[in-house]
Amino acid sequence: MSKQRRMPLWERVQTFVNEEPVSFHVPGHKNGHILPHDSWKVFRDVMRYDLTELPGLDDLHQAEGVIAEAMTLAGEFFDSQETFFLVNGSTVGNLAMILQSVSHGDYILVPKNVHKSVIHGLELSGAHPIFIEPDYDASLNLAMFPRLADVRQAFNTYPIKAMIITYPDYYGTTGDLASLITCVHEHNALMLVDEAHGVHFSLSHPDLPSSALSLGADFVVQSAHKMAPALTQTAYLHIGKGYKGDTRQIKRYLDMLQSSSPSYLLMASLDVSRAFLASRTRQDLDQVLASAKAVRSVLSTLNSATLIEANKQTDPLKITLVVRPGYTTHAVETVFRSHGIYLEFITDQHLLFVHGLAPFTELKKLQEAVTDLNHRLKKAPIHDTMKVVRKKVRQPLTELALDYHTLKMCPSIFIALDDAIDWIAFESIVPYPPGIPLVLKGERLTREKIEAIKELIDAKVNFQNQAICDGVFVVKEIE
């Protein structure tokens, strides 16, 4: 059996459970003997594996045994200098690699379409972000990859110490990451990559984009639960082989930011998922990609939406549809849901389907849903298409109107959206999913931004701002 097929942590946990140990320790369910409710009987067997740091099971925060062995195997598979298991999702990986790379006052280059966890990491670090506007595809209404020329301009203008980028984005779009990494390293800066949606890029197949680690990134975060079959809340943090800094500090940050009682179910699923990825053959991947093409073929027959064609700079397992004029994504999604088909997420104009790392087996059910959808919406009234506000002037590089440290000292007030133009946002305004801030905390609110917020509200897009329909918190005064 190949070394990468081993699952040392999961194997040790299984051995421990099979010994039928008597619990005089936490957790309080006592190996599944104490259930919070009768309906939880279904979890009884699983709860036997919900263990704590017992003799022989190692400790994530001082890994020397089976957890260390499991992380070493992960590092060998992903070809990293070192790989860490994360039980607080990619979020904690983004926070840790930012804290490792920049400190208070350091300049860091950040595309505007990053996940909110990156913004939180910037705030915690006290770094000075320079925001770079991604390229934009007006025909698809999608932000793309940053332009290399803009990145070079940023390094020629500011003393940037690091850059962070999302690769791929939520729709599977990538870009020329290799050239960006070369540019960043030419300026002796660090490249941080939020590859939360790209753990499968570590598999070798010509139809999959290259992984950020293989392209020379210094730090890479990958969710295990998004595209690999791991439990929700699991991720990997990789240190690239070219990184020359001291890695002891990042371990300290992970110790600070992660739970002191990490779930063995989560850690074991990271171990098992690595073994799963390592066991994928070229034939396995060919079958998966053929299945994804079959799903695309069915979805391409939708009358109410247009399929975005796959290309060399997109993940073939991400399938995005753009709603056609006169229809709404909510109407389309509702019909799919009535057939028991749930999408990854919808925006006011896009529907995202995520294909897994195994052939899809319910193509007939999907075809039935598409046929029903075409029939239902054919009879539905065609509504006016909502106009999307786009920036009239592109600003490649911008800074916050107020830095995070100053914001802490400022009082805030809550005002109506229409009155907020030219005020400084005291909170980030985040449509969710996917969790990309539309307005950044510390950014000056413009008329275009306010109109965009109102349009998304009208389109019934969810926000992680409870009172967004009534108004927004802004800075009351600046000394």
From TrEMBL:
Listed cofactors: pyridoxal 5'-phosphate
UniProtKB keywords: Decarboxylase, Lyase, Pyridoxal phosphate
GO MF, one example: carboxy-lyase activity
Pfam family, any one: OKR_DC_1_C
Key word Aminoacyl-tRNA synthetase present: no
Limits of the Orn/Lys/Arg decarboxylase C-terminal domain: 378-453
InterPro entries for the chain: Orn/Lys/Arg_deCO2ase_major_dom, Orn_Lys_Arg_decarboxylase-I, Prn/Lys/Arg_de-COase_C, Prn/Lys/Arg_de-COase_C_sf, PyrdxlP-dep_Trfase, PyrdxlP-dep_Trfase_major
Orn/Lys/Arg decarboxylases family 1 pyridoxal-P attachment site domain sequence ranges: 8-333
Family: Belongs to the Orn/Lys/Arg decarboxylase class-I family.
Name of the protein described by the UniProt record: Lysine decarboxylase
Gene designation: yaaO
